[in-house]
Amino acid sequence: MARRAPDPVTDLYALVYSSKAHHELSLDEIDRILDAAQRHNDREAITGLLLYNRGRFMQYLEGPPQGVRKVFERIKADPRHGEVAELVFEPIASRKFGEWSMAFRSSSAFGHSAPATDGRTILQRIGDSRGSATASELLSDFWRSG
What we know:
There is one protein chain. This protein has helices at 27-44, 65-77, 119-127, 133-145; strands at residues 12-21, 47-53, 56-63, 81-92, 103-106, 113-114. It is an alpha+beta fold and 146 residues long. It has a single domain (12-145), classed as 2-Layer Sandwich (Alpha-Beta Plaits). Strands 4-1-3-2-5-6 form a 6-stranded mixed β-sheet, with helices on both faces. β2 (47-53) and β3 (56-63) form a beta hairpin.
């Protein structure tokens, strides 16, 4: 059976990547990254989660496949980090982080979190059965390593 091409309007995809910051980021630098991510993600109908721990990032993006790819290309070109590795790109049935253009949680950046919520809320979303089991495992492992 031939594989159907994704419909950029109705199909949802998730992408998980990891990367390494070129230096330990300040709270101001993290805030600038989040502000830019939220603006770009809103334009492409992308939602997701960014985790940061001691100079390492793991990010989960979800949305239309072309928008996810466009945002990921911008991320790969960002000079503030390197060693960008795509870990998962796959279709999902529904969003895990639909109300957050980019949720953020860090175990090493002064306990910083956006939206302001305790870690249990984000951890529950990470473990939510919607979407990819592989993505959930990667995010959960990264979260727990911090």
